[in-house]
Amino acid sequence: MEEIINACALARAIVEKPVVIIARTIPGKGVDFMEYDFNWHGKPPDHEQAKIALHELRTLKGKIRGEHE
Fold first, then answer.
1. How far is CA 68 from CA 2, 10, 58, 60, in A?
2. Residue ranges of domains in the chain
3. pLDDT tens across 2-51, in order?
4. Which of 13, 21, 34, 50 is surrounded by the most beta carbons within 10 Å?
């Protein structure tokens, strides 16, 4: 996740030409019940699953930024 954030920051600094970021990603990374589960590709979570996923992703984002809960 940190590599993606860094790549986006570098890409924003390039203004004179188009930029592409190619990523080899892990499906569902950061969400326990989705990680590596290809069945989630194109399938939306229900309301409760979305709440759980957002909480897990916000926690991960805070860890990457060095924030504490």
1. 17, 26, 11, 10
2. 2-65
3. 788 888 888 889 999 999 999 888 899 999 999 999 999 899 999 999 99
4. 34
